Amino acid sequence: MWGLLVCALVLALGLVNADSPCVCNYGSYHGHHKSSRGCSALQGRVDLQTARISRLSARIQELQSKLDEGQSKRDKLSSQQADISHRLHDLEPHECDKGEFSCGKGDNTCVSNLLVCDGTNDCDDGHDEEHDRCHSPVTSGSVFSAKIHEDPHQCTKRRLNSIKIAITSVRQFNWFKSRVLISANAILDHSDHEHTQIDTLAVHGYYNFARRRLVFHPPEDDRLAVICEFDGVDNDSCHGSVLHEASLDHCLEFHAVRETH
């Protein structure tokens, strides 16, 4: 379609010169009369080509809109298919022990979480090394924030209003690819009956590819750790929990969303 439009433009430019719309012979009445008719005919052909170009341009815009709409629908269906696939994998019965990864998809093989995304296929079908599995959504400079609506178990010594996790450092070593070491600042907005205060805690942890889980070790004496799990489809949000290190009991839940600038 674009080629047709270019050909039409070339033809239009060949028919008429911008500096001299037409060349007319004014030497005689008959020459003037013939030349005038020639110029009129030529101008008519140019007008026809211009109108055709306009129609082609409108058609191209219409086709481009349909292509964009089709692309959007395809992306949505692809995302839905991936979401269903991940949910089915999670619903399949697994015989794997804690700390193991199920190869799934009809394969009952279990491999250690430490072997997932280590650069070597341990599942027969390579499920443990798939790109979607081995892509970390946690990058340096990312900021995830969450509103805390309530703390029914009085989980922390602070009455949290919100929590923000600003990723400051991401490191991955060739000799230990299955873990990504993460450093961040946990920015805690909390309040008592009279005052609102913001505390910033330096936290350190890792991203677990097998569980798609971001883990931060306890930064304070209360030994409360923070985890945030991604669903494998939406990399811009995760389901977070605050838990006691010793018992692993979850005492606070939240939904964190990546901030955009």
From TrEMBL:
Every Annelid erythrocruorin linker subunit C-terminal domain range: 137-258
Xref: SMART domains: LDLa
Coiled-coil region(s): 46-80
InterPro entries, sorted: Eryth_link_C, Eryth_link_C_sf, LDL_receptor-like_sf, LDLR_class-A_CS, LDrepeatLR_classA_rpt
SUPFAM superfamilies, sorted: Extracellular hemoglobin linker subunit, receptor domain (SSF141480), LDL receptor-like module (SSF57424)
PROSITE patterns in UniProt: LDLRA_1, LDLRA_2
UniProt superkingdom: Eukaryota
Key word Disulfide bond present: yes
Classification via CDD domains: LDLa
Span of the signal peptide: 1-18
UniProt keyword annotations, A-Z: Coiled coil, Disulfide bond, Signal
Pfam families cross-referenced by the UniProt entry: Eryth_link_C (PF16915), Ldl_recept_a (PF00057)
Full protein name: Hemoglobin linker chain
Originating species: Eunice norvegica
